[in-house]
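Figure 6 in text form: structure in, sequence out.
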């Protein structure tokens, strides 16, 4: 009866109320019946157009697609599949017609469809036969002649088969130009019930270990200079963020990749009013509204690790402090992406931090690099409730980066001596490019802070300036986002 109601298009909430089942149990019923977790029980849609309207390639590190994209046979029936705008951008930026694109988590076939439309060869794999069936259905089309007229694009039918991303032994070394994939997040959405090796059923440690195998196979099959783009997001446990994105980034770097770009992909399905606004404020957590899209590159030659030079940093006594004052009652941000106009960006960051993480009567402490810093001014009976570390000035070379990281560790070590349990330490930082090398500062500082056992990561917030300037470089994307790493004192 549940499946028949779903087939008739009855909304999930109504099905749950009618039959007394949870959303998770509804997904289990669908997955058991169809072999794959899908949101709509119907076949490919009727094609209305073949290309996105008014498409232009992304030029900055923040990608935002309010409309998912519905050209060709793209649809949303495969639960959790990514917007076709993502593989279209990646394929156009990092491959040329005739190149070989690999997607080993093909799901409903989004990457394979785009590769077929854009004149690329494609190898499409998934461990789930149900997903492969949907992919083949969605690829059952003949593109119009005008897309390939006058020899502008070659035409290739994707090679689609069941396969495991951890074992690509049938693919020769150095034969792939581009990998474009959206792996299942550890335990977020379960895509099968009885398929051995399905990463969607792994715990976070298991997922990271298995992704290490994926990363090593990816490095092997890519050509030198080939790119690997992986979309990955975070999770939440006990109202604290679980930084799966940063940890997956580290897995691929440890496998031997270098990082070319680190893109933030915004999500637009997070409710920020009514029920979710109230819960976000009451329980003090932010709705996850971003994912990470790192673009890795296989080195042209074998990399050798070099010791980053140490740089001593003399830490001043304390910091400029100001007490929390009355803040006018305004709505607070409830997701992990904060977008503010440039003229009020610093003030809005501070306002949201104060209202969310500093109780009335507490002390707000700021560390600013490169300025004279005075003694911490605390009134009798008061203790700091929040320390905010401003972003540094430009980090021009590896030595400056090493010195800055060392300074953050020393700030944390000093902060633990006077921050009480439940107080917060917030580090504001931006990814940095030194020559051709992209330094993922969010990841690096998170790793440095993980060693400080007294602090636990609470939130990772993405800061974006409204109306950012378009990218100025054709070689690299313009970095237009920052991170707030929000830690709570144990």
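Output sequence:
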């Amino acid at each position: 009866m549940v499946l028949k109601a779903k087939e008739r298009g009855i909304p999930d909430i109504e099905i749950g109320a009618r039959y007394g089942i949870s959303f998770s149990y509804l997904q289990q019923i669908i997955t058991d019946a169809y072999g794959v977790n899908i949101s709509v029980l119907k076949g490919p849609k009727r094609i209305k157009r073949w290309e996105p309207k008014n498409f232009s390639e992304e030029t900055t590190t923040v990608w935002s697609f309010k409309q998912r994209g519905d050209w060709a046979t793209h649809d949303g029936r495969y639960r959790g599949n990514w917007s076709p705008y993502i593989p279209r951008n990646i394929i156009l930026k990092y491959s040329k017609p005739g190149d070989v694109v690999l997607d080993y988590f093909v799901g409903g076939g989004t990457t394979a469809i785009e590769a077929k439309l854009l004149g690329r060869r494609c190898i499409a794999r998934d461990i789930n036969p149900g997903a492969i069936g949907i992919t083949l259905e969605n690829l059952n089309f003949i593109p119009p002649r005008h897309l390939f007229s006058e020899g502008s694009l070659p035409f290739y039918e994707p090679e689609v088969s069941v396969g495991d991303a951890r074992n690509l032994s049938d693919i020769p070394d150095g034969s792939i130009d581009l990998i474009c994939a959206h792996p299942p997040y550890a335990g977020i959405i379960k895509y099968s019930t009885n398929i051995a090796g399905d990463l969607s059923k792994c715990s976070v440690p298991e997922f990271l270990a298995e992704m290490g195998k994926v990363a090593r196979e990816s490095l092997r099959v890519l050509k030198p200079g080939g790119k690997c783009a992986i979309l990955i997001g975070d999770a939440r446990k006990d109202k604290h963020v679980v930084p799966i994105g940063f940890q997956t980034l580290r897995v691929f770097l440890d496998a031997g990749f270098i990082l070319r770009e680190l893109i933030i992909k915004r999500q637009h399905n997070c409710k920020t009013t009514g029920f979710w606004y109230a819960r976000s404020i009451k329980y003090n957590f932010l709705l996850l509204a971003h994912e990470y899209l790192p673009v890795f590159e296989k080195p042209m030659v074998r990399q050798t690790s070099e010791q980053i030079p140490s740089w001593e940093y003399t830490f001043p006594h304390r910091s400029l402090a100001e007490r929390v004052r009355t803040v006018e009652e305004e709505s607070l941000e409830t997701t992990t992406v904060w977008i503010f106009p440039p003229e009020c960006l610093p003030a809005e960051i501070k306002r949201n931090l104060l209202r969310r993480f500093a109780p009335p009567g507490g002390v707000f402490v700021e560390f600013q690099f490169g300025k004279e810093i005075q003694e911490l001014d605390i009134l009798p009976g008061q203790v700091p409730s929040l320390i905010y570390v401003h972003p540094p000035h430009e980090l021009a070379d590896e030595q400056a980066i090493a010195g800055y990281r060392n300074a953050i560790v020393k700030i944390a070590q000093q902060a633990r001596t006077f921050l009480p349990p439940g107080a917060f330490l917030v580090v504001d930082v931006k990814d940095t490019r030194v020559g051709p090398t992209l330094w993922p500062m969010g990841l690096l500082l998170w790793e440095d802070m993980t060693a400080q056992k007294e602090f636990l990561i609470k939130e990772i917030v993405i800061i974006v300036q409204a109306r950012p300037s378009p990218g100025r470089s054709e070689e690299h994307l313009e970095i237009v986002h920052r991170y707030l790493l929000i830690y709570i004192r144990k």
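Caption detail: The mean pLDDT is 84.
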